[in-house]
């Protein structure tokens, strides 16, 4: 297990290094002078030159790369030109919205998808299967912002249970924070749940055809017991893979939902930074997302080994 | 009243009749052999007793187990019977156990469910039954996972699960078909001992008459979902009153006519020379920093094969036969030593230089279906090796060659337009032989070419091999654990054990008078219909004179 973990962590670190090189060089070749952007079009050449000097833009490429990576390693992601505050503060401010939102969505989608997938697989070809998979098909097809609008209409405008948008912050207690994240989390979770339910169903169906399921039934174990205790764990590998990918998407790919609900999340931060050529913010957010994907993959790999003893050896 | 009575059992799946008026009885403590070829309905009969049939199956008739009407029993009642009163052992031990649960959990689970014992007591019982089936605690603690066990050991776990609660009836569906002969003998002996010890009834399903003759008190022979004949084993199989019984018995002892043997006419030049070949595989690292000791799969093997000669390579599973075959086919490289085909050192040539030599050797695999791409037509499948020819044939030439190859193996040229699923198992094996002969090879390596086939089909395919040897002068290396195949079709045999050739010589000599322990074990374990029947008759006479 130690060797397994060491190897996985090593692979994760290599991924991070490769990603940092790619991010750095892509932003290096993009047109646009950060100093010019910061000082505005009317800046004098002298002011520009001193600004470039101050920002370290004149140093050789490799030095700038190492400075950048070294800074990130100690939590210094640089300063944003447009917000004139440290990037790390900007990210932290937004992450307290985006991270809980992603976690709540993932919990919701898993809680919906796995029982539905098992239910459909257990009733393959019957009405319950057809109906639940039909609903899932709709869930896959309909975009999440449409769900968002429906949810706002029903729960905020009509029933007045939750606010229609905005984020109250965590200052007013956990519940009020969760409450303002509830609708966006549901809107994000539904399409994800639809996909995950279909994956769960097909994984379960494959496992239910295996010989060891017949062995368990021949032991006298009832169908329901076999479903939950023998089949589910074996079907978890593809389900975990999709869950890992969905979590990564939920962290960063929520720009539309953030806009619909006026949430100050990471998606909006990076969108604004791109439009304003605030490259240092883009770099920071992208690296953070790469790191979180690496961590998620590591967690998923460890979970594989927890689920399946055959994967523990290597 | 019998333990199990099946009367006029009919079973349909959709509109297809699978079983027609099947009658069968088993008494307490009796072994009934249920024999038939694939598709005869043996497995469906056993699944009907367990009520584990596919959902679309409809049954009529009566199945009574120990006074319980099985076909009318509700699911909850069946759950009480299964695993408790009726145990079942399946054909494929490699997939019969849940890979994510320990063997202890899997054995104890049924015990807990049926007896409401607490975990400790159930594990205690599980421990005892695992000891009984030959998996002692010192080597096989309850915490082992199935993937840490070999096929034979896993089958013992399955038997432990089936017998843990001392069922009255044990159903064993081809329990040894996936195992080599030595393991087969061990597992059959274990089953027989358990049956004697616990006075269980045993329904032993097999396609192998020799196994059934050895094990069963009575036999029931099935074909196309109907019972052909049933009766006392020795009498049924010696008298062979029913023509189908005779057909099965003849096919299972079939020896092809090899009067056209190419080896006799051919010059005595060596075709294949294997010279001190070694193959190591990296072993598992004991820890992060220790150097792993390599695992030697093939250890210093030397032999040669003449043109047109048929040679058998026999040995238990895991002895290195398939690794050796892969190296001969240049699909893998030896760690040491050299392999020469027609004088060319194929084991050291690069892929480009190897190409002209590849067409001289072809392969036939065990599972004809698994070795075809199901989306390709037969024409394309058979023509596949033609890319090895120096001059690429035109499309018409290609079709002619495919047609000729199909003719040689007894199929029609029109068959080239079909897909593999349109053929039966035996026909598919003919297709894979056609694919092997299309480049006019000098050597065919056949890896268990008939062990997935029914006895009557097996006889036909063995005839085909003998016929092609005479007509085309092709040499064979048969890799098999089945000594009857080796005896039927080869002149010489090599016995492999732990990566080494431990014995070789004329097939008849080696199999009749084995010298090495490995060969003796193989010969002793090989099921033999005639010997089994003689033993059974002798036992009858002995008990008859005692009674008189």
TrEMBL record, chain A:
<dbReference type="GO" id="GO:0071916">
    <property type="term" value="F:dipeptide transmembrane transporter activity"/>
</dbReference>
<feature type="transmembrane region" description="Helical">
    <location>
        <begin position="99"/>
        <end position="122"/>
    </location>
</feature>
<keyword id="KW-1003">Cell membrane</keyword>
<comment type="similarity">
    <text>Belongs to the binding-protein-dependent transport system permease family.</text>
</comment>
<feature type="transmembrane region" description="Helical">
    <location>
        <begin position="285"/>
        <end position="307"/>
    </location>
</feature>
<dbReference type="Pfam" id="PF00528">
    <property type="entry name" value="BPD_transp_1"/>
</dbReference>
<feature type="domain" description="ABC transmembrane type-1">
    <location>
        <begin position="95"/>
        <end position="304"/>
    </location>
</feature>
<feature type="transmembrane region" description="Helical">
    <location>
        <begin position="181"/>
        <end position="199"/>
    </location>
</feature>
<keyword id="KW-0813">Transport</keyword>
<keyword id="KW-1133">Transmembrane helix</keyword>
<keyword id="KW-0812">Transmembrane</keyword>
<feature type="transmembrane region" description="Helical">
    <location>
        <begin position="9"/>
        <end position="30"/>
    </location>
</feature>
<dbReference type="InterPro" id="IPR045621">
    <property type="entry name" value="BPD_transp_1_N"/>
</dbReference>
<feature type="transmembrane region" description="Helical">
    <location>
        <begin position="134"/>
        <end position="161"/>
    </location>
</feature>
<dbReference type="InterPro" id="IPR035906">
    <property type="entry name" value="MetI-like_sf"/>
</dbReference>
<dbReference type="InterPro" id="IPR000515">
    <property type="entry name" value="MetI-like"/>
</dbReference>
<feature type="transmembrane region" description="Helical">
    <location>
        <begin position="231"/>
        <end position="257"/>
    </location>
</feature>
<dbReference type="GO" id="GO:0005886">
    <property type="term" value="C:plasma membrane"/>
</dbReference>
<dbReference type="Pfam" id="PF19300">
    <property type="entry name" value="BPD_transp_1_N"/>
</dbReference>
<protein>
    <submittedName>
        <fullName>Peptide/nickel transport system permease protein</fullName>
    </submittedName>
</protein>
<keyword id="KW-0472">Membrane</keyword>
TrEMBL record, chain B:
<dbReference type="GO" id="GO:0055085">
    <property type="term" value="P:transmembrane transport"/>
</dbReference>
<dbReference type="InterPro" id="IPR003593">
    <property type="entry name" value="AAA+_ATPase"/>
</dbReference>
<comment type="similarity">
    <text>Belongs to the ABC transporter superfamily.</text>
</comment>
<dbReference type="InterPro" id="IPR050319">
    <property type="entry name" value="ABC_transp_ATP-bind"/>
</dbReference>
<dbReference type="InterPro" id="IPR003439">
    <property type="entry name" value="ABC_transporter-like_ATP-bd"/>
</dbReference>
<feature type="domain" description="ABC transporter">
    <location>
        <begin position="272"/>
        <end position="523"/>
    </location>
</feature>
<dbReference type="GO" id="GO:0016887">
    <property type="term" value="F:ATP hydrolysis activity"/>
</dbReference>
<keyword id="KW-0813">Transport</keyword>
<dbReference type="GO" id="GO:0005886">
    <property type="term" value="C:plasma membrane"/>
</dbReference>
<keyword id="KW-0067">ATP-binding</keyword>
<feature type="domain" description="ABC transporter">
    <location>
        <begin position="1"/>
        <end position="249"/>
    </location>
</feature>
<dbReference type="InterPro" id="IPR027417">
    <property type="entry name" value="P-loop_NTPase"/>
</dbReference>
<dbReference type="GO" id="GO:0005524">
    <property type="term" value="F:ATP binding"/>
</dbReference>
<protein>
    <submittedName>
        <fullName>Peptide/nickel transport system ATP-binding protein</fullName>
    </submittedName>
</protein>
<dbReference type="Pfam" id="PF00005">
    <property type="entry name" value="ABC_tran"/>
</dbReference>
<dbReference type="InterPro" id="IPR017871">
    <property type="entry name" value="ABC_transporter-like_CS"/>
</dbReference>
<keyword id="KW-0547">Nucleotide-binding</keyword>
């Amino acid at each position: 297990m130690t060797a397994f973990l060491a190897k996985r962590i090593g692979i994760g670190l290599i991924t991070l290094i490769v990603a940092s090189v790619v991010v750095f060089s892509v932003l290096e070749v993009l047109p646009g002078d950060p100093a010019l952007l910061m000082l505005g079009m009317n800046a004098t050449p002298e002011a520009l030159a001193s600004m470039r000097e101050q920002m370290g833009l004149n140093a050789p490429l490799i030095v700038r790369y190492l400075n950048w990576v070294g800074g990130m390693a100690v939590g210094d992601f640089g300063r944003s030109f447009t917000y004139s505050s440290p990037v790390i503060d900007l990210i932290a401010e937004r992450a307290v919205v985006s991270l809980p939102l992603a976690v709540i969505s993932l919990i919701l989608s898993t809680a919906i998808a796995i029982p539905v997938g098992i239910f459909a697989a257990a009733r393959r070809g019957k009405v319950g299967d057809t109906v639940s998979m039909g609903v899932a098909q709709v869930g896959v097809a309909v975009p999440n912002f449409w769900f968002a609008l429906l949810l706002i209409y029903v729960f905020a405008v009509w029933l007045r249970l939750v606010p229609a948008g905005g984020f109250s912050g965590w200052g007013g207690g956990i519940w009020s924070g969760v409450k303002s994240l509830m609708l966006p989390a549901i809107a994000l979770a539904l399409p994800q749940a639809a996909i995950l339910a279909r994956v769960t169903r097909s994984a379960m169906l494959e496992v239910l055809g295996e010989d060891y399921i017949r062995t368990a039934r021949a032991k006298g174990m009832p169908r329901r017991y076999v479903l939950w205790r023998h089949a589910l764990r074996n079907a978890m590998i593809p389900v975990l893979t999709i869950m890992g990918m969905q979590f990564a998407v939920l962290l960063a790919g929520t720009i539309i939902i953030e806009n619909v609900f006026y949430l100050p999340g990471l998606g909006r931060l990076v969108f604004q930074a791109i439009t304003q050529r605030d490259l240092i913010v883009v770099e920071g957010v992208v690296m953070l997302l790469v790191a979180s994907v690496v961590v998620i993959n590591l967690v998923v790999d460890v979970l594989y080994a927890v689920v399946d003893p055959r994967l523990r050896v290597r | 009243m019998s333990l199990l009575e099946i009367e006029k059992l009919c079973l349909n799946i959709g509109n297809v009749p699978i079983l027609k008026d099947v009658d069968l009885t088993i008494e307490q403590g009796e072994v009934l052999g249920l024999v038939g070829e694939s598709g005869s309905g043996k497995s469906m009969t056993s699944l009907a007793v367990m009520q584990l049939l596919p959902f679309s199956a409809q049954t009529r008739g009566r199945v009574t187990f120990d006074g319980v009407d099985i076909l009318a029993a509700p699911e909850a009642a069946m759950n009480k019977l299964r695993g408790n009163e009726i145990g079942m052992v399946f054909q494929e031990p490699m997939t019969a156990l849940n890979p994510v649960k320990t063997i202890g959990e899997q054995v104890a689970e049924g015990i807990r469910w049926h007896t409401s014992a607490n975990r400790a007591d159930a594990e205690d019982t599980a421990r005892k039954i695992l000891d009984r089936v030959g998996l002692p605690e010192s080597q096989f603690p309850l915490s082992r996972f199935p993937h840490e066990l070999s096929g034979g050991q896993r089958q013992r776990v399955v038997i432990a699960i089936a017998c843990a609660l001392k069922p009255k009836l044990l159903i064993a569906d081809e329990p040894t078909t996936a195992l080599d002969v030595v393991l087969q003998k061990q597992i059959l002996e274990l089953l027989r001992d358990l049956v004697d010890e616990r006075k269980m009834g045993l329904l032993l399903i097999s396609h192998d008459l020799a196994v059934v003759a050895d094990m069963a008190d009575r036999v029931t022979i099935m074909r196309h979902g109907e019972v052909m004949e049933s009766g006392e084993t020795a009498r049924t199989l010696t008298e062979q009153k029913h023509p189908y019984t005779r057909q099965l018995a003849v096919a299972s002892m079939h020896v092809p006519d090899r009067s056209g043997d190419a080896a006799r006419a051919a010059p005595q030049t060596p075709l294949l020379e294997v010279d001190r070949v070694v193959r190591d595989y990296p072993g598992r690292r004991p820890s992060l920093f220790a150097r792993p000791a390599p695992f030697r799969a093939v250890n210093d093997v030397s032999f040669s094969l003449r043109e047109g000669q048929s040679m058998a390579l026999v040995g238990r599973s895991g002895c290195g036969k398939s690794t050796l075959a892969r190296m001969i086919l240049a699909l893998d490289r030896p760690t040491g030593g050299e392999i020469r085909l027609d004088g060319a050192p194929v084991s050291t040539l690069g892929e480009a230089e190897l190409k002209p030599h590849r067409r001289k050797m072809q392969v036939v695999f065990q599972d004809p279906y698994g070795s075809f791409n199901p989306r390709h037509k037969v024409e394309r499948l058979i023509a596949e090796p033609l890319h090895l020819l120096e001059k690429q044939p035109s499309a018409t030439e290609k079709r002619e060659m495919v047609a000729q190859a199909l003719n040689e193996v007894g199929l029609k040229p029109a068959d080239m337009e079909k897909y593999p699923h349109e053929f039966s198992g035996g026909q598919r094996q003919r297709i894979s032989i056609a694919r092997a002969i299309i480049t006019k090879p000098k050597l065919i390596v056949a890896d268990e070419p008939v062990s997935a086939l029914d006895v009557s089909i097996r006889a036909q395919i063995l005839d085909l091999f003998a016929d092609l040897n005479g007509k085309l002068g092709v040499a064979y290396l048969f890799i098999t654990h089945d000594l009857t195949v080796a005896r039927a079709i080869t002149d010489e045999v090599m016995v492999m054990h732990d990566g080494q050739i431990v014995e070789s010589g004329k097939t008849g000599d080696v199999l009749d008078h084995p010298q090495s322990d490995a060969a003796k074990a193989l010969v002793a374990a090989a099921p033999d219909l005639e010997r089994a029947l003689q033993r059974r008759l002798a036992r009858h006479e002995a008990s008859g004179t005692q009674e008189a």
